[in-house]
Design a protein that fits this description.
The protein has 451 residues and is mainly alpha-helical. It is built from 14 helices and 3 strands. It has a 3-stranded parallel β-sheet with strand order 1-3-2, with helices on both faces. Helix 6 runs antiparallel to helix 12. It starts with a helix and ends with a helix.
């Protein structure tokens, strides 16, 4: 039983296998020939593996940058990191997390089937992280045993449908159609960027409309512009940190050569991610038609944040830089008010600010061009500082004092559940969650009658 559960969890938290299975089911439901089923399934898995390889290359190239930043500016604090907090939490919450994750995906399908939230969340690792966060926070609220699993599963299913629904109006503007949804749990930062873009970006040209002199036209190639920008950033930080410290990270390699290679590797990672996304889109959208037609009419696959990167590659870089800048400003504000608020100093994590900031840049650009990308991503950076700082004390009550969740949706839902645990009983919290589901189902039933 345990080995079977481990197999199921292993499949569910591995994005390439999970989405490959979804593609397989969709193609089979459409009655496609065996050759098409095999080809579509393998290409979908391959696309996610390529995307993952690109993401790993980005993470590897950015990891030293965070340490160099801390050394250069002599700052210590908490670096929000989903993987770190999950690694600690799963030691005590492994079983409820696994059950909540598996049943939460079933709940997501049922909610998509019987409500107007027609979104199937396919980002497996974020589903695992959210399941773990829910297990932890519901435990703080007084839940245990079967009620912890049941209520946690329903709540997870709701989040997997609600957050893609919030992002979908912006996704239409980014992709130009309604066939793909967005599944990444930092959605609140992205839609904030989108709304800010609407407010400030009137008349602002897109980040992709670069007007450059002829001799600088090569900068229109995003791989070149990203490489050069990251070279400048890395060189400034490396010089500030000093050759001696950087050499401890480079295994003796010359520190200038080391940071130049890391900068170009970062751009290479972005390039690989874009190729993986294109392959996924070419396969998963047609395959998902089968599920949409047979199991959940009009369902849309909600996919990981790099799915939007090809639509505005320049906004990806701009979003990262301005989100990181927002993180630095947020850090300064936390330091300035540390005597007023008993909150930890949140250091800007380079990896979350890249993936979340880049995505915020694309969302902001879709509604407000360059201004939207810059200001929207900056606001996202402030959010990635403030929310983890507010969540940190709640997690510390269970002994998780070393880190906190980095992305906006994890932190927001955690703060809400933590606040609710102080004033509401488990029974009241359960009633509220189930009442929301009943209202969504009822609204769908009424709306169908009116259609």
């Amino acid at each position: 039983m345990i080995s079977l559960l481990n197999l199921i969890v292993g499949i569910l938290k591995t994005p390439s296998i999970l989405v490959g299975l979804i593609a397989l089911v969709g193609l089979v439901l459409q009655g496609k020939p065996l050759t098409d089923v095999i080809k579509g399934t393998i290409k979908t898995i391959m696309g996610f593996l390529i995307l993952g390889a690109g993401a790993d290359l980005i993470v590897a190239s950015l990891s030293p940058m965070g340490q160099i930043f801390e050394k250069a500016f002599h700052i210590t604090g908490v670096v929000p990191n989903n993987e770190a907090i999950i690694a600690v939490a799963l030691k005590d919450f492994g079983t409820p997390t696994a059950l909540i994750m598996a049943l939460g995906m079933v709940a997501n399908i049922l909610i998509a089937r019987f409500t107007r939230l027609k979104y199937i969340f396919l980002t497996g690792h974020h589903t695992l992280y959210m399941a773990c966060m829910i297990a932890v926070m519901l435990t703080i609220a007084g839940f245990s045993g079967s009620m912890l699993v049941i209520v946690g599963s329903v709540l997870l299913g709701l989040t997997m449908a609600v957050f893609p629904a919030l992002a979908q109006p912006f996704m239409k503007g980014i992709t130009g159609d309604d066939s793909v949804a967005f599944g990444h749990f930092s959605t609140l930062g992205y839609i904030l960027s989108g709304y800010i873009g609407k407010a400030v970006g009137k008349g602002s040209k897109s980040t992709e409309e670069m007007e450059l002199p002829k001799n600088l036209s090569f900068l229109r190639d995003s791989s070149i512009s990203i490489s050069l920008t990251m070279m400048v950033i890395y060189l400034v930080l490396a010089i500030a940190a000093g050759n001696e410290f950087v050499s401890t990270l480079s295994d003796g390699q010359n520190y200038i050569v080391f940071v130049l290679i890391k900068a170009i590797a970062f751009a290479g990672g972005v390039f690989v991610v874009l190729q993986g996304v294109r392959l996924i889109l070419n396969e998963i959208v047609p395959a998902f038609t089968g599920i949409s037609e047979k199991l959940v009419p009009n369902a849309k696959p909600a996919l990981d944040c790099p799915i939007v990167f090809p639509y505005a590659p320049n906004a990806v870089l701009i979003g990262f830089l301005f989100s990181f800048l927002g993180g630095i400003v947020g850090l300064v504000l936390l330091w300035a008010f540390k005597g007023v608020f008993a909150l930890p100093l949140i250091l800007p994590g380079v990896v979350p600010h890249f993936f979340c900031g880049a995505t915020a840049g694309v969302f902001g650009n879709s509604t407000g061009g360059r201004k939207g990308a810059m200001i929207g991503a900056f606001a996202n950076g402030l959010l990635l500082t403030a929310l983890p700082a507010l969540l940190f004390p709640l997690l510390a009550t269970l002994g998780f004092a070393g880190s906190t969740f980095s992305d906006a949706d994890f932190a927001t839902l955690g703060i809400i559940l933590g606040g609710a645990s102080k004033v509401l009983s488990p029974t009241v919290i359960t009633c509220i969650i189930f009442a929301i589901v009943i209202l969504l189902v009822g609204h769908n039933f009424v709306a169908k009658k009116e259609d």
